[in-house]
Amino acid sequence: MQPLTAALVLLSVGLPGALSGQATADSAQAPLRIATITAGVGNAMGWFGLQGERYFSRDRFSAFLGVGYTPAPDEVDPSGITFALGVRGFTPGLKHRGFLEASACQVLTVSSFIEEERARLYGPCLQAGYHFAARGGFTALVSLGVGFALGEVPAGESTAMGLLGLGFGYTWRRR
Fold it and tell me: Which domain does 117 fall in, by range?
């Protein structure tokens, strides 16, 4: 396992436990989150895109859909509309929460000068992150993780890739 991949796996396992102590006594009376819309970058956002999220089970779990665009830095690189679909589990907390995320997302792009081969490879992804949702609605999230590309990767490259996410948006709460 590569050092970056090992560090991301350790972060994914340790971060939610550290943030679980952020719950407050009055969080049981706080209005529950209903939905969030965020814009940003990252695999779960569709690289450069938007993400819609719906909360369940007293806002401790959610399902999300990300739609974005993958740009092509060079003419031979693949580009286009990108999707992500996943679920999150959250630690307790009024404004500050940790989460674990499992999704299917675009992990990497592959291009070849010789064969003019272009591919965007999707696969299972696991991320851990931090979610801030102010009572007024402002929302920010950041995450790190690892994804595993399904499909043929170039010789010498790993199917495991580091993932990241950064988004800003708005969260609606039940009044």
Answer: 3-19+31-173
